[in-house]
Design a protein that fits this description.
The protein is built from 2 helices and 8 strands, in the order E-H-E-E-E-E-E-E-E-H. The strands form 2 sheets. The chain has a 5-stranded antiparallel sheet with strand order 1-2-5-6-7. About 9% of the residues have low confidence. With 116 residues, the chain is of the alpha+beta class. It is 17% helix and 34% strand. It has one domain. The protein starts with a strand and ends with a helix.
Length: 116
């Protein structure tokens, strides 16, 4: 996992002036767009990826219906949101909510096994 600082192409020598009239929220919003953690994942056969103990379903795009076995880039920004990219194209996705495991009381379990 690596942290990247993506500087605008107009920057020379790595220095960039900041408008002193910007508010803290405007500066933070700008930083959210350029500071992020970059990670790579391989899409599973069911078009899902795992990231930080969560599963995400990658949705079809205009150019491609499925992404099984594709290697994608996951970017986690300062505001904790993630963006998923494939060859420079941002992909739509949905968080897969974990299903609650159904538990039975021991008497219910026994009756299910016996068929009573």
């Amino acid at each position: 996992m690596f942290a990247y600082l993506k500087l605008p192409a107009t920057c020379s020598g790595g220095h960039h002036s900041i408008d002193s009239n910007l508010t803290i929220n405007e500066v933070r919003s700008g930083l959210d767009q350029i500071l992020y953690i970059k990670d790579r994942r391989q899409v599973q056969g069911d078009n899902t990826i795992g990231y930080n103990t969560r599963r995400y379903q990658i949705l079809p795009t205009k150019t491609r219906l499925g992404f099984a076995k594709a290697k994608v880039e996951v970017q986690k920004h300062l505001d904790e949101c993630i963006h998923i990219f494939y060859k420079g194209e941002e992909l739509p996705y949905e968080l897969i909510e974990p299903q609650e495991e159904r538990r039975y009381a021991s008497s219910q379990t026994e009756s299910l096994l016996v068929g009573v």
